[in-house]
Amino acid sequence: MTDDNYLEHAKEELKRVDHLIYVSLKYTRTCDIFKNIIERLISALEFGLDAILQRLEEEKRIFETPSQPGAKCNAIKEHVKDEHILQLVEFYLLLRQMNRADFSREREYRRHVTMTMTIEGKPIEVNIDNITQYYKDAKVYIEHIEGYLKGTS
What contacts 24+ positions apart, CB below 8 Å, involve 146-151? Predict the structure, then answer.
Protein backbone atom coordinates (compact mmCIF):
# COMPACT_ATOMS: atom_id res chain seq x y z
CA MET A 1 0.00 0.00 0.00
CA THR A 2 1.35 3.44 -0.82
CA ASP A 3 1.48 6.35 1.60
CA ASP A 4 -1.31 8.05 -0.41
CA ASN A 5 -3.53 5.02 0.20
CA TYR A 6 -2.80 5.16 3.92
CA LEU A 7 -3.71 8.84 4.00
CA GLU A 8 -6.90 8.15 2.05
CA HIS A 9 -7.89 5.53 4.65
CA ALA A 10 -7.08 8.01 7.45
CA LYS A 11 -9.33 10.62 5.87
CA GLU A 12 -12.15 8.08 5.51
CA GLU A 13 -11.88 7.28 9.22
CA LEU A 14 -12.04 10.99 10.01
CA LYS A 15 -15.23 11.27 7.95
CA ARG A 16 -16.72 8.52 10.11
CA VAL A 17 -15.65 10.38 13.25
CA ASP A 18 -17.24 13.54 11.89
CA HIS A 19 -20.53 11.69 11.45
CA LEU A 20 -20.29 10.17 14.93
CA ILE A 21 -19.74 13.57 16.53
CA TYR A 22 -22.17 15.70 14.58
CA VAL A 23 -24.97 13.17 14.02
CA SER A 24 -24.79 10.12 16.28
CA LEU A 25 -23.63 11.95 19.40
CA LYS A 26 -26.23 14.65 18.87
CA TYR A 27 -29.03 12.11 19.19
CA THR A 28 -27.55 9.40 21.38
CA ARG A 29 -25.22 11.06 23.91
CA THR A 30 -23.72 7.94 25.43
CA CYS A 31 -20.23 6.92 26.45
CA ASP A 32 -20.41 4.12 23.87
CA ILE A 33 -20.30 6.78 21.15
CA PHE A 34 -17.24 8.35 22.84
CA LYS A 35 -15.59 4.93 22.89
CA ASN A 36 -16.32 4.44 19.18
CA ILE A 37 -14.97 7.91 18.36
CA ILE A 38 -11.74 7.18 20.24
CA GLU A 39 -11.34 3.88 18.36
CA ARG A 40 -11.87 5.62 15.02
CA LEU A 41 -9.38 8.37 15.91
CA ILE A 42 -6.81 5.73 16.82
CA SER A 43 -7.43 4.01 13.50
CA ALA A 44 -7.08 7.26 11.53
CA LEU A 45 -3.85 8.21 13.28
CA GLU A 46 -2.47 4.71 12.84
CA PHE A 47 -3.00 5.00 9.08
CA GLY A 48 -1.08 8.28 9.22
CA LEU A 49 1.76 6.66 11.14
CA ASP A 50 1.81 3.79 8.65
CA ALA A 51 2.16 6.31 5.81
CA ILE A 52 5.20 7.82 7.53
CA LEU A 53 6.70 4.38 8.16
CA GLN A 54 6.09 3.42 4.52
CA ARG A 55 8.04 6.49 3.44
CA LEU A 56 10.87 5.67 5.89
CA GLU A 57 11.01 2.17 4.45
CA GLU A 58 11.12 3.51 0.87
CA GLU A 59 13.96 5.83 1.86
CA LYS A 60 15.79 2.82 3.37
CA ARG A 61 15.89 4.48 6.80
CA ILE A 62 14.15 1.41 8.27
CA PHE A 63 14.27 -2.15 6.94
CA GLU A 64 10.64 -3.07 7.54
CA THR A 65 7.52 -1.50 9.01
CA PRO A 66 6.93 -2.75 12.56
CA SER A 67 3.57 -4.38 13.20
CA GLN A 68 3.18 -3.51 16.90
CA PRO A 69 1.93 0.01 17.77
CA GLY A 70 4.67 0.62 20.34
CA ALA A 71 7.38 -0.39 17.89
CA LYS A 72 5.84 1.85 15.22
CA CYS A 73 5.94 4.81 17.58
CA ASN A 74 9.52 4.10 18.62
CA ALA A 75 10.65 3.87 14.99
CA ILE A 76 9.02 7.20 14.19
CA LYS A 77 10.48 8.85 17.31
CA GLU A 78 13.91 7.57 16.31
CA HIS A 79 13.86 8.60 12.64
CA VAL A 80 11.56 11.63 12.42
CA LYS A 81 12.53 14.92 14.02
CA ASP A 82 9.42 16.94 13.08
CA GLU A 83 7.91 18.31 16.32
CA HIS A 84 4.28 17.99 15.12
CA ILE A 85 4.81 14.34 14.19
CA LEU A 86 6.29 13.65 17.64
CA GLN A 87 3.26 15.35 19.24
CA LEU A 88 1.03 13.16 17.05
CA VAL A 89 2.77 10.05 18.39
CA GLU A 90 2.15 11.17 21.99
CA PHE A 91 -1.50 11.98 21.18
CA TYR A 92 -1.90 8.57 19.55
CA LEU A 93 -0.42 6.81 22.59
CA LEU A 94 -2.73 8.78 24.91
CA LEU A 95 -5.78 7.76 22.87
CA ARG A 96 -4.67 4.13 23.02
CA GLN A 97 -4.38 4.37 26.81
CA MET A 98 -7.81 5.99 26.99
CA ASN A 99 -9.28 3.21 24.87
CA ARG A 100 -7.92 0.51 27.20
CA ALA A 101 -8.74 2.26 30.49
CA ASP A 102 -11.73 1.43 32.64
CA PHE A 103 -14.18 4.30 32.71
CA SER A 104 -17.25 5.51 34.52
CA ARG A 105 -20.32 7.04 32.91
CA GLU A 106 -21.99 10.21 34.08
CA ARG A 107 -25.02 12.14 32.82
CA GLU A 108 -25.67 9.87 29.84
CA TYR A 109 -28.42 10.94 27.44
CA ARG A 110 -27.79 14.57 28.42
CA ARG A 111 -25.76 17.40 26.87
CA HIS A 112 -23.04 17.05 29.51
CA VAL A 113 -22.50 13.32 29.13
CA THR A 114 -19.08 12.51 30.60
CA MET A 115 -16.80 9.50 30.43
CA THR A 116 -14.21 9.58 33.24
CA MET A 117 -11.09 7.42 33.34
CA THR A 118 -7.81 7.38 35.23
CA ILE A 119 -4.55 7.26 33.28
CA GLU A 120 -1.21 7.28 35.07
CA GLY A 121 -2.92 8.42 38.25
CA LYS A 122 -4.61 11.42 36.62
CA PRO A 123 -8.36 11.56 35.99
CA ILE A 124 -9.30 12.34 32.40
CA GLU A 125 -12.82 13.41 31.52
CA VAL A 126 -14.15 13.00 28.01
CA ASN A 127 -17.16 15.12 27.10
CA ILE A 128 -18.69 16.43 23.89
CA ASP A 129 -16.46 19.50 23.84
CA ASN A 130 -13.11 17.81 24.29
CA ILE A 131 -13.90 14.81 22.06
CA THR A 132 -14.69 17.37 19.34
CA GLN A 133 -11.31 19.00 20.01
CA TYR A 134 -9.59 15.60 19.73
CA TYR A 135 -11.24 15.20 16.32
CA LYS A 136 -10.07 18.64 15.19
CA ASP A 137 -6.54 17.90 16.44
CA ALA A 138 -6.51 14.59 14.56
CA LYS A 139 -7.57 16.37 11.34
CA VAL A 140 -4.69 18.83 11.74
CA TYR A 141 -2.23 15.99 12.37
CA ILE A 142 -3.35 14.09 9.26
CA GLU A 143 -3.06 17.27 7.17
CA HIS A 144 0.42 17.83 8.61
CA ILE A 145 1.44 14.26 7.74
CA GLU A 146 0.24 14.84 4.20
CA GLY A 147 2.32 18.01 3.96
CA TYR A 148 5.30 16.30 5.58
CA LEU A 149 5.21 13.45 3.07
CA LYS A 150 4.88 15.87 0.15
CA GLY A 151 7.74 17.96 1.54
CA THR A 152 5.68 21.10 2.03
CA SER A 153 5.79 21.30 5.82
Answer: 146/7, 148/52, 148/82, 148/84, 148/85, 149/3, 149/7, 149/51, 149/52, 149/55
What range does the domain containing 38 cover? 3-150
The span from the CA of 73 to the CA of 144, in Å, is 17
Q: What is the CATH number of the domain that holds 89?
A: 1.20.120.330
- Please give the radius of gyration of the chain, using alpha carbons only, rounded to the nearest integer: 16
In this structure, what is the dihedral angle of CA atoms 132, 137, 142, 145, given to the nearest 10 degrees?
Answer: 180
Q: How many domains does the chain have?
A: 1
pLDDT digit string, tens, across residues 91-128: 999 999 999 999 999 999 998 999 999 999 999 999 99
User: In angstroms, rounded to a whole number, what is the distance separating the alpha carbons of residues 34 and 56?
Assistant: 33
- Whether the model clears a pTM of 0.90, i.e. scores above it, the answer is yes
